[in-house]
Amino acid sequence: MDRDTIGDLADSHPLPHDAEFSAASPRDAAKAKTISERALIVTQGKHRFYSLVLPSDLLAQTCTVEARAENPADGFQRLLDERRARSIARYIDAGLGTVPGAVVLSAQTRAHLSFDKDEGALTFRKDPKAFLIIDGQHRVFGFKLAKSSVSVPVVIYNRLTRAQECRLFMDINTKQRPVPNELLLDIRRLSELETETEALLHNVFDAFHTREDSALAGFLSPAERKKGMISRVTFNAALRSIKGAFDGAPAEEVYVVLNAYILACRHGLGLHAIDQNIANPVLFKALMLLFTNVAGRVADRHGGQYTVRNFEEVLVPFFRRLKKSDLPRAGMTHIMLHEHYSKALSAGFLLKQWLFA
């Protein structure tokens, strides 16, 4: 936002009466309740805004959003995800959660916003279009759906032009970085919110990350995404696709079997001097999907002895037939790659290949 245009974003003067609001009948005007709340004027460089706390049900009654689908000429907000809003409502009604982030608003003319510096009080009309939501539309709509009311931190800008509102929306949504999903998985453990499946995946990942005999040693990144490494999110997604194979198994047993399988995969990739490609997300997920097929054949041949050597007996002939062109290409998904590998694995099971391998 240009510094020379924002010096008067928050002021102590009421906005001029909106024509639409002024044209209302005396009866409608009488129904418009005036709200007065304690507020502070906050200055950040040349930026100024009001900071206060409002009840969530009041926000639901005084805030609006202008989505582009409804007003493509002037609208800049995203369409509402009702499922997300209902999730917030359930979270509020549970009575155990908190939503501390400030909702950012722009006062519209029909708010009749005014600030009493002596009293430190911000006054506005309780009107359904008093404020345009700059940031926090899903929270506000969640408040509207909730049965309970909570206190919410609010930031209100005054006298913004539509261009300034758009710039502020862009600043908030491009300069703030969301918490990485990898870090959120760690936080779920610390907050004791993990499901049984999440706990299993977490423990198996940690084993692969810390054990010296790990087939993925040096290839895992637990808290963030890094190029050439497997993140916790990618690892979890890959193992979820085959979680049925490990029902009821402890993390240690899952680690031992998968470690043997991945070592065999790396040896197979090593035939083409590309064992480092195990960290490619598409390839890793495809090979994980292939696990149940390979493990079934190992079980048939060796009575469930899931050793590296037994996995290699199935995998090495398969990898010998692969060409570098069979590796992930741009636009190829792990599902597509798995289908290709599954067919190649099945096509290679000829008796003479096992007799003369």
Automatic annotation (TrEMBL):
Compositional bias per record (Basic and acidic residues), positions renumbered to this chain: 1-20
Superkingdom of origin: Bacteria
A Pfam family annotated for this UniProt entry: DndB
Segments of this protein annotated with the region Disordered: 1-26
Protein name: DGQHR domain-containing protein
Organism: Methylocystis iwaonis
